[in-house]
């Protein structure tokens, strides 16, 4: 499943997991760099998800 | 022999006498007080009419009776005077009418008691009238004010109703037979009207008596077409009205009861329409407000959830930034690796390595160990 197909909950769980591993592997600098980059991609997806959701909510609101 | 008194046999005398009576009195009406009233074998009726000085015998059948009678009533009797060859003089009755206010009231009370016992006035027999009807069978006198009033009010209130009239006498000795025939006429039609209206304006007790005769009351009660009867003024009450499916106090009232008033109906419909619109509008406004309230609440919840989620994501981003393994390079630190990419953490490891790769914040450079310090 690509990142863009995942739900926000799935992305959040994945990010939590990466951060946990990153904290544990902070001395393995190469691995840590890869995990950091992966975490950044997940965060970007989560931000996109939030932006889309926000836009959708705004369209559903009645005009004031 | 001319000029001599005739001498006749008894039978000849009876025959000649009756011929003479028929010439002089083919039909005669006599008013008097009923006396010696009796019914023989359930069919033959004998009675006398008398006044202060005289008494006359009458003969008829029960079919000619206007209703239950008893001695003392005042009757107007029409018939043919006859001399019977065995039983003497009597009047063969054609029709009998109770006359005089007191007698009429008394005869009506007798008839009412009889018919009530038979259940003719029972509320259980009453049928609803069509409202408004498409066709009305009207029985009245075409020359009466009652007829004019009825037609005028029906047309003014509703109109477009077919009214079929049978012109009938509404008072007098011939009226009961005509009224009964009119009711039967409508009932025998292949396509009878939906309702029959028997109407008559006000009058004396004698004038209204036809509508309380047994034949008319029974015809009304037996009608398969629903009936509405309106006789006289508001205070008058005939037996036909009691037997009818519905009674009206006057002919005008009968018209009012039979059809609604178009103007009133239109007004009521307009009122109903505006009432419905108001109810709908109030309901719609209330529901719209409720929906708006729910919408606002939902928006608030969603906004809160969104703010909370955004905040949590921001916190994650800060945490991740703190864990960035390359952050120290920006602060001047370097990452040193050997030619195999293994990180060099000690001088010993550095000396052991032939070539070093030094990662800095903006890129990397190759280096060699020259001397240990």
Provide a descriptive summary of the structure in words.
The complex is a heterodimer of chains A (64) and B (373). Chain A is mainly α. Chain A has helices at residues 8-24, 29-60. Chain A contains 2 helices and no strands. In chain A, helix 1 (8-24) runs antiparallel to helix 2. The mean pLDDT of chain A is 86. Helix content of chain A is 77%, strand content 0%. Chain A is elongated. Chain B is an alpha/beta fold and 373 residues long. In chain B, the strands form 3 sheets. A 5-stranded mixed beta barrel of chain B has the order 1-2-3-5-4. Chain B has a 5-stranded parallel beta sheet with strand order 7-6-8-9-10, with helices on both faces. Chain B has a 3-stranded antiparallel beta sheet with strand order 11-12-13, with no helix packed on it. In chain B, helix 3 (145-157) links the parallel strand 6 (135-140) and strand 7 (162-167). In chain B, helix 4 runs parallel beside helix 6 (214-222). The longest helix of chain B is centred in the last third of the chain and has 61 residues, at 262-322. Chain B starts with 9 loop residues before the first helix and ends in a 5-residue tail after the last strand. The chains are: A mainly alpha (64), B alpha/beta (373). Chain A binds chain B through residues 8, 15, 19, 22-23, 26, 29-30, 32-33, 36, 39-40, 43, 46-47, 50, 53-54, 57, 61-62, and chain B through 292, 295, 299, 302-303, 306, 309-310, 313, 316-317, 319-320, 323-326, 335, 341, 343.
Question: Summed up, what is this model?
Answer:
The complex is a heterodimer of chains A (64) and B (373). By secondary structure, chain A is mostly helical.
């Amino acid at each position: 499943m690509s990142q863009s197909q995942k739900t926000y909950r799935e992305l959040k769980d994945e990010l939590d997991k990466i951060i946990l591993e990153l904290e544990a592997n902070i001395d393995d600098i190469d691995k840590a760099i890869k995990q950091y980059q992966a975490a950044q991609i997940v965060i970007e997806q989560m931000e996109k998800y939030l932006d889309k959701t926000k836009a959708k909510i705004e369209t559903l609101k009645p005009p004031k | 022999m001319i000029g001599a008194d005739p001498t006749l046999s008894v039978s000849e005398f009876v025959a000649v006498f009756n011929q003479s009576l028929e010439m002089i009195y083919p039909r005669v009406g006599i008013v008097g007080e009923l006396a010696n009233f009796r019914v023989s074998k359930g069919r033959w009726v004998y009675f006398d009419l008398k006044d202060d000085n005289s008494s006359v015998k009458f003969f008829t059948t029960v079919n000619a009776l206007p209703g239950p009678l008893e001695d003392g009533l005042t009757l107007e009797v029409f018939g043919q005077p006859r001399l019977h060859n065995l039983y003497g003089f009597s009047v063969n009755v054609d029709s009998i009418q109770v006359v005089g206010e007191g007698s009429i009231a008394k005869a009506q009370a007798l008839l009412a008691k009889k018919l009530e016992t038979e259940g003719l006035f029972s509320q259980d027999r009453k049928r609803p009238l069509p409202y408004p009807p498409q066709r009305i069978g009207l029985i009245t006198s075409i020359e009466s004010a009652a007829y004019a009033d009825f037609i005028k009010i029906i047309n003014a209130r509703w109109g477009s109703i077919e009214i079929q009239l049978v012109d009938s006498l509404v008072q007098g000795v011939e009226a009961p037979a005509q009224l009964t025939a009119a009711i039967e006429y409508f009932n025998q039609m292949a396509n009878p009207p939906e309702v029959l209206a028997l109407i008559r304006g006000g009058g004396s007790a004698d004038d209204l008596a036809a509508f309380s005769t047994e034949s008319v009351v029974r015809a009304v009660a037996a009608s398969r077409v629903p009936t509405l009867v309106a006789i006289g003024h508001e205070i008058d009450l005939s037996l036909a009205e009691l037997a009818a499916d519905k009674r009206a106090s006057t002919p005008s009232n009968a018209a009012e009861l039979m059809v609604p008033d178009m103007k009133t109906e239109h007004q009521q419909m307009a009122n109903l329409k505006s009432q419905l619109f108001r109810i709908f509008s109030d309901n719609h406004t209330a529901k719209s407000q409720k929906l708006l309230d729910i919408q606002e609440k939902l928006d608030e919840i969603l906004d809160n959830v969104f703010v909370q989620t955004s905040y949590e994501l921001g916190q994650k981003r800060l945490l991740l930034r703190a864990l960035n393994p390359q952050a120290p390079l920006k602060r001047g630190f370097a990452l040193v690796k050997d030619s195999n990419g293994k990180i060099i953490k000690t001088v010993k490891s550095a000396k052991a390595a032939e070539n070093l790769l030094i990662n800095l914040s903006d890129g990397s450079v190759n280096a060699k160990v020259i001397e240990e310090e």
